[in-house]
Amino acid sequence: MQEVIVIGGGVIGLTSAWWLLEAGYGVTLLERNAVGSAASLRNGGQLSYRYVAPLADEGVPLKALQWLFEENGPLRFRPEADLRQWRWLTRFLVNCNAGANSKTTARLLELGELSRRAMAELEVFLPLYEFAWRDAGKMVVYRSKKAFNAAAAAKPGAEEAREVLSPAECVAREPALAAALPVLAGGIFNRGEAVADCHAFCVALAARLAAHPRFQGVVNGEARRFITDMGKVIGLDTSAGMLGADHYVLAAGIQSRSLAASAGIYLPLYPLKGYSLTAPIRPTDCAPEISVTDVERKVLYARIGDSLRVAAMVDMVGEDTSIDARRIAGLTRQVRETMPHGADYSRITPWAGLRPATPGSAPIIGATHYPNLWLNVGQGPLGFTFACGSAKLLAGCMKGGAPPFAMDGLTLR
Questions:
Q1: Which of 77, 100, 129, 139 is most deeply packed, by most CB within 10 A?
Q2: Strands 232-238 and 162-165, bridge-based pairing
Q3: Which element (helix H / strand E) includes 89?
Q4: In which element (H, E) is residue 356 found?
Q5: How far is CA 242 from CA 107, 138, 223, 316, 348, in A?
């Protein structure tokens, strides 16, 4: 039995560990904190398998300039004396065209569908109720008539189940949007999309890992650098001592960037800082049953258990995980305006996390130039959505099997 060290105990690392165990490997998990305690802790909770639009798109640079001058705009940028930020931005701008966006979207839709099926496979071992999974459907609402008309005119995929709705129909389908009716141009409802508690998923999956006969355990420590020799990784230097295995899987979020650099590998990742707030739902509240994405404001709403989760914003401020009180205050004002009776906003729990994204919004999965070092990184804000599919792809690559679809755009170039 070949041994694998998976570096990272978030949703990507945990799912990677599971699918590798099922593929016949012995697995050790390395995590510096508690499982699911970083970007997986209080993310948006939406499993948006069909709504996978890349951040890089035609017209985004102009929109980004406009957002920078809005007090509560969805984007905030702080220049750094760090070449990695500018290199990422340059490649991001190169990807901001319709052709690149179309190719990436097609690949992400395939990964999304694989992830949906893989999550269903996992249900055999991990009951959905353990992480508050609900097949809620997803409503994407538009404030701009131009944006709504363009989205409504787009041809859906052959199997995509969607409905184009007027503003009144949006509110009829989701009464929590009643206060926003005067500013809505319309919406699109997609069946088959889900919501769940990502942190609860991580905790539940970690318990299943611990019970697996091939699982070697969790090492609590911080990875420092790879040790390489003769074209292979021969060890991993950690705060818990030197670790060794036959294979190494890098799934450590934004930390993957510096770890890969220790082996001479450049990963085009940048930490897009996102915010969320979680508020308890009282019996008298009118919380959304459907997950909702407010396109122009880049705000998403998801009912997770007995709480309302609201996630939004992209701050390009480096590896700063602090909670900016102004951003939370601005988000709270927008939420009160859109869904004034959605939850108890006097008891908000704020959160901020780093979402490691590539310039083109597609993750990096599979091999490196080292035959025993593998990658599962760069899922960005869709980490929970793509986790199961990415893990299944990775395990297949490591076993030498043929992927279920072309991997161009999803590998390290």
A1: 139
A2: unpaired
A3: helix 83-95
A4: strand 349-357
A5: 38, 46, 9, 34, 42
Q: Is residue 289 part of a domain?
A: no
d(CA 63, CA 42): 27
95: containing domain: 1-68+82-134+194-270+356-413
Which CA distances in Å does 345 have to 1, 18, 290, 330? 52, 37, 19, 13
Q: What percent of the chain has pLDDT over 70?
A: 98
Rounded distance, CA 301 to CA 139, Å?
Answer: 10
Distance CA 108, CA 348 (A): 33
Has residue 383 been placed in a domain? yes
366 bridge partner residues = 375
Provide the token pair at 84: 């990695």
Inter-residue contact 281 to 308 (CB < 8 Å): yes
Could you report the per-residue pLDDT of 55-79, keeping only the tens digit for each? 877 777 777 777 766 777 888 888 9
pTM of the model: 0.95
Instruction: Flag whether 3 is in a domain.
Output: yes
Q: Convert the pLDDT of each residue in 279-293 to its tens digit.
A: 999 999 999 999 999
In one letter, which amino acid is 94? V
Q: How confident is the model at residue 324 (pLDDT cuts 50, 70, 90)?
A: very high
For the chain, give the mean pLDDT. 94
Q: Specify the CATH number for the domain of residue 388.
A: 3.50.50.60
Which residue, chain included where needed, has tokens 């308890």? 280
Structural domains in the chain (count):
1
pLDDT at 75: 85
- If we measure between CA atoms, which residue out of 284, 276, 257, 254 comes closest to residue 380? 254
Q: Please report the pLDDT score of residue 154 as a whole number.
A: 80
Q: Which helix (H) or strand (E) holds 389?
A: helix 383-398
User: 302 phi and psi, to 5 degrees?
Assistant: -145, 130
**Cβ-count burial of 90 within 10 angstroms (0-12 exposed, 13-18 middle, 19+ buried)?**
exposed
What CA–CA distance (Å, rounded) separates 47 from 112? 9
Separation of alpha carbons 313 and 334, rounded Å: 12
What is the pLDDT confidence band of residue 32, given thresholds at 50, 70 and 90?
A: very high
Answer whether residue 292 is part of any domain: no
3-state helix, strand, coil in the chain (%, to 5): 35, 25, 40
